[in-house]
Queue: 2 jobs
Job 1
Amino acid sequence: MLQAKTNGKVLLSKNALKVLESRYLKRNTFGKVTETPLEMFQRVSKAVAQAELCWGSNTDVKVWEEKFYRMLTALHFLPNSPTLMNAGLSAPQLSACFVLPVEDHLKDIFSSLKLAALVQKSGGGTGFNFSHLRPKNDLLIHTQGQASGPVAFMKIFNTATTYIKQGGKRRGANMGILNIDHPDIEEFICCKRRENAFTNFNISIGIYDHFMNALQVDGDWLLIHPRTGAITKVVKAKHLWNLIIENAWSGGDPGLIFLDTINQFNPTPSLGTIEATNPCGEVPLLPYEACNLGSINVAAFIKQKKFDWPALEQTVILATRFLDNVIEASEFPSLRIKNMVKGNRKIGLGVMGWAEALSKLEIPYDSNHAVETGRTLMRFIAEKSLTASYMLARERGPFTNWQKHASNQHIPVRNATRTCIAPTGTISILANTSSSIEPYFALAYRRQHILEGSTLYESNNTLLEYLKQKHIDPAGVISHIEKTGTLRGMKSIPSSVKALFKTAPEIHPSWHLKHQKAFQEFTDNAVSKTINLPQKAKPSDVHDIYFSAWEMKLKGITIFRLNSRKKQVLDSGIKS
Ligand code: ADP
């Protein structure tokens, strides 16, 4: 087994090493791993520091390389998976998030499919809005045939993804969106109802404010032909809404994206309207745009039950520079994408380890104190990364579309967006912390499917450390959490401790929403968040959450009701 060490300390958990070994470390042509984790961090730091050559002298490169290396090996910040996997290799593609257009011409559809294949091969995820496609059974003028419609075309994208294995590392991910006024919306809302349908897609409905207004007055809603503008059907807004709720309740899909809110915060409106996001929803992008992400392990910045703000500030500044450099260090699958990315230079700095940070601060996740702390934290990160991007603009120039299009940004910044909250599904395993801003899923769990043919077992080290600090005998705790995933029912554990280590299904959905809102307020992209519901939740609970999400001006919303799908990535409790 590989062991990464710095200053004599073992840095990476057993699970992190497993994940690195199976997916991230460089391999030779025979598939044999040829680098250690520390060499991987060196490779990434070096490749990203090389970008400094575009703006400065050779000598600075080594300095930045060392700074980046220290930040990565301390697990204070990790970039998104494609950067870790590909930086420094030949023709590296380093971004996790792409949006590609789907225009209503066969040639254009297949051009986007080809680009999607190239993006997915390199480990990036792709988002599409299928609303420009003419509806199913519409007449095709040249052939006198009938159109297949958005759902049929999405099937082709889904099948392609199944066979593009990202160099054997992981299967690709997509977001499919259809707007609420498309004639095929009913079919789309229900398209994931069958078990195993569209497994490579998350789906979301593009919602307009005027749809929500119609819903509130039980009004009619018009379905409009995207090419001719003709009304194809009049339905009750409530009918579509109930169909959405019913499907989300029974299987998690569809989520919603709120198009008007997203476009209200579009930093470059003169370049077009945003219609889609990346697969997990945290980055709304224009067609052909890409964004590279990175997340700060905020739990690592708690010292004696307080945030070490100066250290956090330094990391935010360095991480912002790192992400801006990644744009230079990256190759892109087409010139069009390259030009869009270089024109806007969007980056997405976010957080992981929020639940762990709260435990260390002794603040229960389901409390106003936690929500306010989240707001303070994200405001800090947003302000410091904005300043860092401003300083980079002075050094390197603002993003070119800022100059050309006098965008929504008032000050010259280097990056059209700086922040987003990604799910950190894999990088949080590498950093050995809780993912994103999610509460703990369980205190011990089995993670399925993440590596082909392999299962990871994880138990919550922060809890065990905490018990040790409080001189609470952990005997019995381990076997209890391995069986049930929670502290519930353990009489020997004080309720104050139980409150600090509640798991996602034990936390009322309204708290999940409040955290999403608090972080969204200071995030210029979006927040990827799953509102976890207990199995017994009703469709009316889903309604309440989806409706409040719109009222709260969130950019999107996703729920998951426990055990509502046969296959789950995470399973609470280890022994069954
Ligand atoms: P990681 O922890 O691997 O860096 P995240 O879980 O934070 O990634 O996801 C960030 C983004 O990366 C997603 O929204 C999506 O755009 C992309 N992504 C995640 N998983 C995949 C995948 N299996 N294939 C392609 N893209 C992915």
Job 2
Amino acid sequence: MAQAEEKEENHVLLVAFSSQGHINPMLRLGKRLAAKGIHVTLATTEIARHRMLKSSGAGPADLVTGIELLFYSDGLSLDYDRKTNLDVYMDSLGKHGPSNLSSLIKEHYPSPKKLLCIVTNPFVPWVSDVAAEYNIPCAMLWIQPCALYAIYYRCFNKLSAFPTLTDPDMVVELPGLPSMEEEDLPSFALPNNPFGSFPKLFSEVFQGMEKFKWVLGNSFYELEKHVIDSMCELYPIRPIGPLVPPTLLGQDQELENASVDMWKSDETCIEWLTQQPPSSVIYVSFGSIVVLPAKQMEAIATALKNVKRPFLWVVKPPEFPTPDGAGQLPSRFLEETKDQGQVVRWSPQTRVLSHPAVACFITHCGWNSLLETICSGIPLIAYPQWTDQPTNAKLIVDVFKIGVRIKKEVDGNISSEVIEKCIEEVMVGPVAEQLRKNAMALKAEGRKAVAAGGSSDENIRLFVEEISGNSS
Ligand code: UDP
């Protein structure tokens, strides 16, 4: 058979929302499928290509080997402020995405229905309709914890009681999960949330799950077994993670890394880490989207100064700065701490987390960051902001038992004293010791899950067998 035809017949198309936290797990899934003999292409929007080019100067083709990258337009110009105008962005993506993706498929695959499967994620739910147009089976990669999948499924299908405008403080009880109060629930499941189109989008996704023949989860069975089991009778989710770089899984030889940085990472921090004592550095990062208000930046800065421990803080300058100083360091902080810590705009995070000098991670609790930390075996200090992050913080503290949470004050702010207390708690003493032990145990479980014959590896094998039509 000619090579082009063989490629077309043994091919999976991944379609990702164009954010760092969505593209990375998709690419890593792509690498795992490729390792099982599948040809993989990833499609996302032009804005991702624009950021990749800006970050590295290299073309996307040079950034990831073995996976072809394709791009389509979301209908907006490249310099449009998508972050501030999220609703306009999601609206335009929903309006222009389907036809643009459909044209891309027609252009690249002369016989689209030969594709084994299209895998997408919940932020671009219309992809399942494009797949149906061509008669291609569709799978969802759920990129948050399986716990969130269970919560949203039950919430949007009205299978359990959730807070309402008349009873906003009710405690939510769900199978396989601890009791959850308002501060533990994901923002899209709250009755009066200000997140525009997202709850509507999630509600449509979860009421139409039959469009997805498979739901794959970026998690592992041993991490979330109770909640995964609780979904078996409803709409099962198959964990195939943790989708983190192979170096964090002790798999350097078998799989290559697959991630593209949308911001240029500052490698000098690795040299700096190497000069620090083992288990001494506090790593601080809030991911690719969160921009902290000036007051919260100040509280963190004060706490770091006061604890007098080495720190590495990622402060990604806001793409569209605001006059209130959100996301910016207090003046003089760099000068005052030049012998204590380092501030970078973007770090090579997975290398940082696995560096022996790093002791703990103050994080916004993005799921990719959490999985990367779990696979590095270090404890966390949770400072969640929105979407799944509050629930992820609850899991860290009460289910995985690998961290503590910075509690907000009544006015929504945080005090530097509370942060200092959390830092000391995870750095020294019996709590710190227990958290480290738990973190190391989960790291070992994660490695086992993705190793040959492990629970996630088996789930990938089964998925490949099913999409290839080889299952009995
Ligand atoms: N990341 C990175 N360098 C940084 C901060 C983050 O490489 O300085 C990566 C991190 O390793 C993770 C992703 O960006 O893979 C962030 O995803 P996450 O789900 O944690 O948060 P989000 O950015 O989606 O809020």
